[in-house]
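User: I'm preparing a small set of examples for a lab meeting where we compare how different chains pack in three dimensions. I only have the primary sequence for this one, and I'd like the structure in token form so I can line it up with the others. Please keep the answer compact; I'll paste it straight into my notes.
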Amino acid sequence: MKPLPIIRRSVSFLRNYSGPYFLSMDVTMRCNCRCKFCNLWTKPQSPQEIEIENSSLEIMEKRLEEAWQMGCRAVCFSGGEATLYRRLSNLVSKASTIGY
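Assistant: Understood. Below is the structure token output for the 100-residue chain.
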């Protein structure tokens, strides 16, 4: 069986690409889902985690820029439930401005 054209192009692209391509950024460890296979939602957020989350926008924006300079061209915002991060729109906007 022949590989699909998109797979062939992707493999060819990545073979010739130096450096990281994909950035996965955990923006929060909070989660409002109640998945049976996960215990993340059962753990209360520590004061340190709250402080880091509240002060980390500038740090994460800097990491987006650094990753772009290293060659990353795709980013995924994750963690617990990324949409619970109150500054997610700021990060998405920054990533878009950079070129992700």
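A couple of notes for your slides: The CA atoms of residues 65 and 98 lie 7 Å apart. Strands lie at 22-28, 74-79.

User: Perfect, thanks.
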